[in-house]
Each structure stands twice: as structure tokens, then as C-alpha cells.
Amino acid sequence: MIKIFTKRNVPKRVLLLLLCLYLGLSAYAQTPSVKGVIKDAKETIVGATVIAQNVQTGVKTTTSSDKNGVFSFPRLVAGPYRFTINFIGYETKTVTGQVKDGGTFSLSIELRESNTLLDKEVVVTGTGINRNRNTFTGSTATFSGDDLKMVGNNNIIQSLRTLDPSFLLIENNLAGSNPNVLPVIEVRGKSSVPSASLRDQFGGDPNQPLFILDGFESTLQTIVDLDINRVGSVTILKDAASTALYGARASNGVVVIETIRPKSGELQFTYSNDFRVESPDLSGYNMMNATEKLEFERLSGRYSAADGNPTQQVYLDQLYNSHLAKIKRGVDSYWLSEPIQTGYSNNSSVFVQGGDNTFTYGVGMNYKTQTGAMKGSGRDSYSGSINLTYRKNKLNVNNITYIRGYSAYNSPYGSFSDYVNANPYFEKNYTDRYLEISRQSNGVEIKVRNPLYDATLPQYDNTKNLEVQNNLNINYDLTPDLRLNGAVQITKGNKKGKIFRAPESSDFEDVTLLRKGTYQDSSSNNLSYQANLLLTYYKAIAQKHVLNANFRATINEKQDDSFITLSEGFPQGSNGNPRFAYGYAENGAPKAASSIYRTLNGTLSANYAYDNRFLADASYRLDGSTAFGRNKQFSPYYSVGLGWNIHNEELFKGKSWINRLKLFGNIGVTGNQNYGNVTSVSVYNYNSNSNYNQFGQGIDLSTLGNPDLAPQKTRQISGGLDFMLFNTRFTGYINAYTKKTDPLVVAVDLPSSTGVFSYPLNAGTLTYKGVEVKLNYSPIYNTAKRVVLMLGLTGSMFKSKYAGFGNTLNSLNKQQELSKSILRFTDGYSAETIWAAKSLGIDPATGREVFLTPSGQYSFDYNAANILPVGNTTPTVEGVFTTNLMFKGFTFGVNVRYKLGGDVFNKVLFDKVENISFSNITLNQDKRALYDRWQSPGDVAQFKSISQTATTPISSRFVQKENIITGEAINIGYTFDNKTWVKKLGMRSFAVNALANDIFTASTIRQERGIDYPFARTVSFSFRASF
User: Fold this and answer.
1) Could you read off the pLDDT of 392-408 as tens digits, one per residue?
2) Average pLDDT of the residues in 497-522
3) What percent of the chain has a predicted confidence (pLDDT) above 90?
4) How far apart are the C-alpha atoms of 42 and 39, rounded to whole Å?
5) Do 363 and 385 touch, CB atoms closer than 8 A?
6) Which of 77, 127, 430, 747 has minimal Cβ neighbours within 10 Å of its Cβ?
7) What are the residues whose beta carbons fall under 8 Å from the beta carbon of 179, sequence distance 6 or more?
């Protein structure tokens, strides 16, 4: 039986449902979709990011490739699309296509590995004269912002010391981790004789590299305070071929920093936060406890009357019993914990960017607050920038405006050494000016200061700085091969400092009432401009010849002035208001200084490559500067380099095991003028003493300039081998160099009859020879699956030698001897040689030191004429072991510094084991002063008799060989790029990272680290979110 449905038999709701289903299926069938697969030369790639942007509407859709390398966009609005594919370790690729209704758009994309892993094919010199790394014959090292943040998030200086073997951070054992003290940096050794008399107050460290920020010269302070999250790349220029473009300012190397440029596209917002915790490192201190200290004093004769006076002896016995009673009562004060704290640092950074192909903009801000390892010390820094770029046809205009500043404040607790030296059998208190007033064994009164008392007084030492800077850069393409570039920078800065010492301070105990308390107010201003014009010609001919030629002219002027007033005498309870000062400092008056420093130079440079195999570079620069003598204000500098890309020879082309093998060498001359104007200009002062000249106003010659002073010139010869082998698994370089500075600029004393005590002249040479090695090997290397294990090693070895001084620096060496310095300026010896008397040790019979004379004789008597070279602070080799692991989004890295073979003059042994005077016996000392000193005939000991308080001369007994290992940087992190929860929160990406810096130090010698301010171990956390 057949049943026939009529219209009435079918419910209306069923018909409606069928109609909707039909329409939906029709619409779905007409919606276009995109599918594709991503692979490299070997296999498919998992986790690659794919961005589909509708060209008409600008709407973006993001996805990623799955475990099979497949990605899809199932429903897209029809129209023209731009597809961008990126993955770490590969070059970013962009493809375009028309997506039509009802169709499926298929893509098969092959990514090419970046031979430099992180797109470092261009050497940025900071002058606008950039070079292709493949055809450049200079020695350089380039690191991305991500490289820097993998080993530290404090500042780029701390990170560079881990990443490059030539970039040496000289440890400052006095300042420790003080955030307000600038680091001391050397690149491939020194090029000058260190001397404060060669610099005016506006000059810099003569051995410090030149810093270039976004194409213009910058200061070390600006670089230290620079927000590390804004750094795009850092390039270190090391040899003549790479630094000759900077002529007279380049012999110490050049560090070029480029900040991140804004990108076009829809509005992007990025927030970064870095949080650091630092804990004072006191592991190097080996101080006595209360019982040990009292016993040391007893054995040293502290409680024995020097002249046998019975009355004095009774007093000393009572004093000893008083101290002993405190110890029996349980007093054993650990003073080192009083001035220190756990320091915290927080850096917040925001960057907003966007625009189109014609106009892009970027606005950035950051604020960093830091409390130091000592109470009351810290530093707050801030910066803001506006970056605008206009591109239209042949014209490109970029303008960056910076505002930056900082507030620095030093600890009111004074020097950390005051607490290290405090006696443990005294009880801590904040109310007493002196912990004890007593008499020594010779009857002389001694007052033991209480360091905590001064810490409670209303004292301060603060500095504030504000700087505004504008950089304008204009490019215009005259022809396809010829470009004209002009750039101008203007900088205005102001710095103010205030230091107040309260009248109640124990520093003024022996000062008259009207001179108690001091207040110093200082201010300095600077105004500078730099302008340059660059003409660049680039031409590729017949696919064989490539020529890049440049001409650059630069002019620079810097104006500095300073004003300092020092007032003294304040009423009790004063807070430092100078209005209440009794007057200027005794025999003092306000101090003012000004300086105008100018340079003018022109540079010609060219780079040529034949068939990308044979390479040549040449540069010539003529430099004029007011730092030179008036009669020698212009000086030429040059470099010539040759290179050979062995991997481009027919024999090696197409070989997968050789990706790069470049041999290069260069020679050139660069200079150094960091010492300012003081060497070339004579300075006169008005004579303020009216009784000096009865015939009227007089003037004094305070500084005698040398109009014939020639600039320092450093001839550099450098060569090396760069390689990348086995499909980039094994990479690195080996470089060798020689640096000879001839002539040096030194300051010598003239006869006292001249009235001039320091005169600059040219004398002597300083030569450095060294080798640098960097090796990276990846036993596991699968970039497609994002699994990479990399093992790395860097090493640096060098030696130096003075020559050509003769007797010129005898007066300077005499000053070194009187100041108990271990350094000398002597022909044939190193700048790092340690000079001291040769010691054979302590005589077991007498406890006295035995010296060896140059003639081979034994003597108990010290003679300054017998000082000899006894060591060298240069390590045999120094570098870093590195292990880095990347697994998907997870990263882990360990960087351990090693330093082998250098000699160290152990100042703790010299000052706190021996050389302990009658007055210093009341201070705490190193435990070795009790346990390791000679006490009775027959003792075999390293140190002299414990009862002797006579001065000990500098001898080889205090020079020790040091091998050291430091946990410089350990990091662990994870990047959430394609997680669903990240997208739901509206973020493009989210990354977290944890770091530990200087977490441990193991050394073969024991010495105090951080005399005035302790060193610190740091742990930090970072996160970065992009919207």
C-alpha cells in the first residue's frame, strides 16, 4: 500500500527546517577556505605562525601549523589576502593571493633557514655606512635584543660581558654592586695610560669603548640606563676595518646599539615587566668572632703596657676584663648585617606602534625603580620616546625624540667597610657616638666610632639628571644606485647633586664649632649637537662585481659647564638648608668650570666583492679636534682589509656540511681622545689672594697645555676565520689581533720652579696581542620541531707591553711607589704587571720577613730599589661555558664564566692580616691574623709575628694565583605563542622568563669582595605580553 502525502500531511515546521538547512548548506558551500602545508628542505614544520590579512579591510586572522605542518582558515571573507609565515630560525615569508567565493585556496610554503639564525647578515656600524657581513673584512659581533635578555634583564652592559669574549667588564672591588657607580669596560685591552691628570672633569675613561645609540654618539650612563626591552640589536666593532669609520675615537672599540623600530600595521601594544631581587654576597668575608678578636688583641700586646707602667697595666687589665665580661655575657655582634638589605628592582615598559606603508609611529615609555644592597641606596630611572617615520617614493624621514632622566641616592650608612671593621664584642646601638673611649697600650687615647650613630643623622647624597634629545634622519634616493643621507642630533642635559654631612657626625669631632657640618651643591649643564652628511653609492655589475662606496662628513660641538658651592658650619639639628650655613669652606669659594669641545671630520670608505668570493675594504678619515694640540689639530686615520669566502668556491658550492668559511685580515690606524681638552689648552685662574701681588690683580697658570701634542694613534692588525658548518650545527670564529698605541699621551711633573706639576706630552708605546675564540655546537638541531640543544665556549687570551718610556716617567713611578701602588710604567713590562719586593717568606726563627735582592742576597731589610715584577693580573685564559636548550616554547640556559691563571694582590692579607697598627688593633680583622701568623720560634707561617705592628711593605707574599668559576647567568622560560587561552585574552603572544645572575663564585683564593659596597647575587623574573 502506497501512502501519498499531501500538502496538508507535511507539517509547516518541518518544511521551514528543511528550507533553513538548504540555505545554510548553500551559504557554507560558497564561503571560501584556505588550506596549506609548511615545510623546509627536509620535512614539515610544526608550530609555524600563519597570519592572513585582508588587504582591503586590514582584518587579520592567525593560526598555526599542526603536527603534520598543515594549517587552515575554513571561513574567510572573499578578497585579496596577504599571508605571512614565520618561525624561529627561518626567514619570514610573505605570499599574496585572491580568495574567491565558493573556492578553496591551497598553499604549499617552503621556509628557508636563516644562515645567521637570527637575521644578522648586515653589520650596523652606526654611521649609516652598513656592510654585508658576507663581504665585510672586519671583526664584529652582533646580538639581538632577545640574545641580551636570555642572559640578563638589568642592562645591556651586563649581558654583553657574557656574550662576547672581547668585551671585558673590569671588576670594581670597591664599589661592588652599587647601582650608582658606572662599570669599567675594556674591549681588547687598553690604549692609554690611566691618569686622572690627563682628563678634565668633563672627559671620560680613556680606555672605554665608544658608544653609538641610533646613529649618534652616546654616553655610558645613557647606555646603562637604557631600557633593555627597547634594544633591537647590539654590534661590537673590534678592529681597524670596522672602527676606522670613527677615526680618532675608535681605538678602544665601538659598541653600536639600535633600538626597535616601529612596524606598520594595525595598532600593537606591548607591555614588559622585569622584577629583580638581589641579595648581598658576604661569602668573601672571614672576620673574627668576639672571642677570637679579644684573643688576637691579647696576643698583639693590646693589653700590655708599652713602658711597663704599673698604673697603665692596671687600667689595661681592667679594660681586658671588661671586654671579656661582655663576651661571657653573650655579646658577639654581627655588624655586617646592619647596613645591608635585600634589594628590589622593577622595570615596567610600554610600547605602542602602528601605521601603514607611508607613515609609522611608535611611542614608548619605561620606569625603573631599584633599591640597592645597602639600606637607603637606590636609583630610579625613566625614559620616553616618540618615533615617527615617513616614507614616500624616494624620501624617507625619521625623527626620534627622547626624554630620559634618573634620580640616584647613596646610602646614609656610609662605607660597608666601617661595619666589617666593627669589633664584635661591642653591643650595637644607634644612640652613642662612640662605642668606646679608651687608651692604647702606649697610653694614647683612642675613640672607637659607632657607624650606626652616623646612619641615623639627617644626611643625604643625592643626584638628579634630566636629558632631552632629538634625532632627525633624512634619506633621499637620488638614483637607484645613489643615496643621500643627512642627520642632526641636538641634546640638552642638566644634572644636580646635593651632599649634606650633619654637624653631629663623628667626622667633625676635632673640628671647631663654626666648621661642623658641610653642604655641597653642584650643578652641570650640557648642550651638544652632531650633524652629518652621507653619500652612498651601491652597484652590482654583471652579477660578479659589487661595489659599495661612501663619503661622510661630520661636525660636532659639545658645551659643558659646572658650578659647585661648598658650605660649612651648621647649627645642631640642621637639615642641610644652605641658608643656615656659617660660610663657605675654609679657604674655599664657589667653583665654576666650562668647556667647549669640537670635532670636524670627513670619511671615505669602499667595500668591493668579486663573485662573492674575494673581498676588499678600505677607509680613510681626516679628523680635527680641539683635544689635539693647537699645532696638530688634524690627523689622518685609515684601514685596509681583504677577505676570502672559501665556501663560495666551486669546490664547496652545494656542500651541505659547509655553510660559511670566511678568511679575513685587515690593518689600520685609529685614535683615542677621551681625555677632553685639558691636554691641549693652558688654563689661567685669577689670584684671589690680594696680598699676593701688591701691584694689582694677578693671574695664576694652573694648567699648561701642549700646543704640539700629537694625538694618540693605535695601529691595529687583525685577522680571523669565521665558520658555519654541518648545516649550521657548528659555528664560531677564531680571531687574532695586535694593537700598538704610538705615541701615548702621558702627564709628567715639571720642576717645582715652573709652578706646574702636570704637563702632557707624547712618550712611549703600549702594545696588546691577543686571541679570541667562540665556538657553538648543536648535537640536537631540529628547528622544524623547535628542539635545539646548543653547547658553547668562548675564550680570550692577551698580553701587553710598554716600550719607549726611558726615564720619562720616573716621577710618575715614584708617585706609584709612595701611594703603595702595585703598578709601574716600565719598558718591556706589561700594563698589568704587579710590582713588589721579592719575598722568600717568614724566617721561622725570628718571625721576620726575608727579602731577595736583585743580586740574589737574603736580607731582612726592605729596599724600595729592590722592587721587581712578581706577577701579572692578566689571566691565562678567560671565557664562558654555555648550554642552551630549546624545546617547543621552553628555553633553558646556563652560562658559567671561568678565569684561569691570573695573579691577584690580596689586599685583605696586606691590610687585615698584617699592617695592623696600634690604632687598627681595635678594629675587627681577618681570622688569618690570629691563626696563620708566626707566634714563637720554630713556627712555619705565612705571616709575620702576631705582636708586630710595624708597617709591612708590599711584597710577593701577598700575590696569589687565582682560578675562578662564576655562575654568571642561568635562565629558564616559556613562550605561549599559539595557545588558545592567550588568544582569548586578546594577546598575540605571552612569554615568561626567570634569571639568576652571579649566583655563585668559586675561587682558589679568599679575599673580600665589595669594600665600600657589597656585591650581590640576583634573581629576576620577566614577562612580556603583546596585544
Assistant:
1) 888 999 999 999 999 99
2) 92
3) 57
4) 7
5) yes
6) 430
7) 370, 372, 377, 378, 379, 408
Dihedral sign for Cα 411, 414, 420, 426, please. negative
The per-type count for the chain, helices as H runs and strands as E runs, is: 13, 53
User: Could you say which DSSP state residue 576 is in?
Assistant: -
Collapsed DSSP state (helix, strand, coil) of residue 74: coil
Residue 201: all three cell numbers together: 672633569
Residue 75 grid coordinates = 571561513
How, if at all, do strands 122-123 and 210-213 pair? unpaired
pLDDT at 552 over 90: yes
Residues sharing a CB contact under 8 Å with residue 739, sequence separation 6 or more, in sequence order: 188, 189, 191, 251, 714, 715, 716, 767, 768, 769
What per-residue confidence (pLDDT) applies to 23?
Answer: 41
Percent of the chain with pLDDT over 70: 91
Pairing of strands 216-218, 210-213: antiparallel
What's the number of CA atoms in the CB half-sphere (13 Å) around residue 745? 32
Write out the three cell numbers for 676.
677632553
Pairing outcome for strands 614-625 and 591-610 = antiparallel
Distant-in-sequence, close-in-space partners of 236: CB < 8 Å, separation ≥ 6: 140, 141, 142, 160, 164, 166, 167, 187, 209, 253, 254, 255, 256
Cβ atoms within 10 Å of 67's Cβ, excluding its own: 9
Domains of the chain: 12-110 (2.60.40.10)
- Per-residue exposure over 897-915, b if at least 16 CB sit within 10 Å of its own CB, e if not: bbbbebbbbbebbbbbbbb
- Cα angle for residues 872, 873, 878 (degrees, 5° grid): 120
In the chain, the N- to C-terminal Cα span, in Å, equals 68
Query: What average pLDDT score do residues 54-65 get?
Result: 77
Cα–Cα distance for residue pair 486/484, rounded to 1 Å = 7
- Higher pLDDT residue, 18 or 897? 897
pLDDT of residue 3: 34
Identity of the amino acid at 202: F
Per-residue pLDDT averaged across 764-784, rounded?
93
**Mean pLDDT of the region 674-694:** 64
d(CA 125, CA 212): 9
Cα–Cα distances in Å, from 493 out to 521, 559, 575, 895?
17, 10, 28, 38
- Residue 500 and residue 581: Cα distance in Å, rounded? 11
Q: Which of 445-449, 497-501, 1023-1027 has the highest mean pLDDT?
A: 497-501
Q: Cα–Cα distance between 547 and 562 in angstroms, integer?
A: 48
Average pLDDT, the chain: 87
**DSSP string computed for 628-681:** S-GGG-EEEEEEEEEEEEGGGSTTTTT-TTEEEEEEEEEEEEEEE-TTTTTTT-
Return the SS3 of 701: strand
pTM to 2 decimal places? 0.86
Greater confidence (811 vs 263) lies with 263
